[in-house]
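Weekly modeling sync, notes
Attendees: S.R. (lead), two postdocs, one rotation student

Agenda item 3: backlog of single-chain predictions. S.R. asked that every request posted to the team notebook include the full sequence so nobody has to chase files. The rotation student volunteered to paste the first one in as an example of the format we agreed on. Action items at the bottom.

Example entry:
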Amino acid sequence: MAARAENKKDGIVETVKTIVYALLIAGVFRTLFFQPFWIPSGSMKDTLLIGDFLFVNKMAYGYSRYSCPFSMCPFSGRIFGNEPQLGDVVVFRHPVSGADFIKRVVGLPGDKVQVKNGVLFINGVEAKQAPDGTFEEIKEPQGPVANIPRCANQPVGTGGICVKDKAIEVLPGGVSHSVLNITGNASTDSTGVFTVPKGEFFFMGDNRDNSTDSRVRQPNGVGFVPFENLIGRADRIMFSSAGRSMLYFWTWRSDRFFKGVE
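Predicted structure, as returned to the notebook:
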């Protein structure tokens, strides 16, 4: 009986040790390589929807004091990383507020970026847009903070169909992605020329008229973002919920599980 009790005790100890080791490995994996990110706003529709849950690849651009796997980092700048490419969807730290943002890279160091009548130009080259129908959603509170979507077909009452014009934009170099348009006279539809400084990047949201991005100067906007503020690249949506909570299983979007971010 004593031997049996001892064996049972050893089995429990081994089980607990296995669970602890598994949690430690998962914690290290998350800290070193990936960071979870929940999409809180509609600035990247329809590439990313409110309620999309993804893991950010922290190794894509190396480590900085913002993406460092330790609570205290003894360095500034970045180590081990490559620079982003045009079209990458990136999570970064806002240079002023410190909040985490997610946008698309549309300007590299040295590039000249301008928006004319809603069309993006990079170094004088037009990022051509081909009409691609419309993006439709219900006009109702979305996500934990109950955001109400803006519509191109206003006025739209609560519960009505909210429509935005959709196009496929092709960046210089060939990367293509979806962009949305709500109005033709937004304050950010026509800008001056932005020359991206060395070591910094220019970001825009795909939901062009509903994105406070590098077109808007700091402190209210994003402005230019230093390389060291980049946290990682968004590569794949793991899970998506259209409700106020991920626990509301009846609101899960099954068509977005493991969907690649383009």
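Discussion: group reviewed the output briefly. Helices lie at 2-32.
Action items: rotation student to repeat for the remaining queue; S.R. to check formatting next week.
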